[in-house]
Amino acid sequence: MAITQRQLRIFWQSSLVTAILYSVVCLTWGTTWLGIKVAVDSIPPLTASGARFVIAFPFLLIICLLARAPVFFPKNRRVFFVLLTVFYFSVPYYFISYGEQYVSSGLTSLLFSTMPIFSIIFSALLLNEKIKVNQVVGITIGFGCLVVILKSEGLIFTHTGLTGVLAILSAAMMHGFLYVFSKKNASDINVFTFNTLPVGLAGFLLCGAGLVVEKPDLSTASQASWIALLYLGVVASAGGFIVYFYLLKRMSPIILSFIFIIFPVVAVGIGALYENKTVTPEFFIFSSLMLIGFGLTKLPIDTLKRRLENIYGTERSAKPAYRR
Hints:
It is a multi-pass membrane protein. InterPro entries: AA-Vitamin_Transporters, EamA_dom, EmrE-like. About 75% of the residues lie in helices and about 0% in strands. By secondary structure, it is mainly α. It has one domain (about 15-320). The radius of gyration is 22 Å and the shape is globular.
């Protein structure tokens, strides 16, 4: 069947929209880390991470209602709801806000880009998935380069720097675990349900803890910090969520997962400009090698292998037999 000009035009328009939205997610997630850095400049980390979610919650609730998705989790998933609220939204985002007090926004994004690596490890432990050779090689390269970067930044030998690094890596590990755990136990829960109420509850829990522990004087918070919180709540959390799940329905998960390789590049560049820091050649080289290593873990080796085998098998069967 011949493709009409109208069908071709619709295809290219759809592809262009998808490419633009993909770029928007990379840019949004890449700037999130700088937003957190600016927010915690004058607002304590518990309060800042909670305020972000309190701002995002009404927007997510409206989206959830418009999509006619249930707000509340099923009764038999209450334990999972608690785990998600505490160990996906509350604790990890506090750890990230805490860590960014001592670690640059660009390096924070590199540290958090290890999340898919933790998901590979937990997939092997919880889902009995085999870790492939390319994943072992990629993880080794990635974490080896990360150690070199941390050493060159002087963050391994200082108490506060090391604490910040460990907090951010712990956040990435928790996200990796909950990602795999949700695949195993909650794959049937609507994506809007999955995010809306946990975000709202996490926001109020974090703000409540902030009032008790940090006793923040919000009158001293800078205008830049408030603008950063609005950006994190409305654009990064609510807007980024909508666009990401729109793309998830229209793109290969493998291609979409490369966002975790792209957004650190955006974060490092924007963070360096804002913080007036020079990206050293050593940092650039090892950051690039680290992301290449993590990208290697995402290659669909089995799919490529099957395709090569099919091509090779077809060529062999098509080859005329030699007769004496």
